[in-house]
Amino acid sequence: MTYIHKIDSDRCKGCGLCVTICPKHVLEISEKVNTKGYFPAFQARPEDCIKCALCCSMCPDVAITITGAEDADQTQQAASTEDNDG
Ligand code: SF4
Ligand code: SF4
Question: I want to staple 63 with a disulfide (CB 3.0 to 4.6 A). Which of 12, 13, 45, 72 is the partner?
């Protein structure tokens, strides 16, 4: 199982909480603005990421996700598992 760590830069408001919380110093704030005029976080050192998900939990805008993929070559993100209860 390969885990893919992704930041939706257009959701990010550049608050820096994820940069601060990351124990591996993977994240930094970009010098380029996103579509909303913020400086978004990005993976400056993705090879150091341990997929601990602290940044995902911390982000107030839910801009960071970690998804599991069976095969790293497959770029499928169509995991539509809706929970219909009731
Ligand atoms: S998953 Fe953990 S190690 Fe990876 S960027 Fe987020 S906080 Fe850092
Ligand atoms: S915590 Fe979320 S909104 Fe804040 S910089 Fe990180 S990704 Fe962007």
Answer: 12
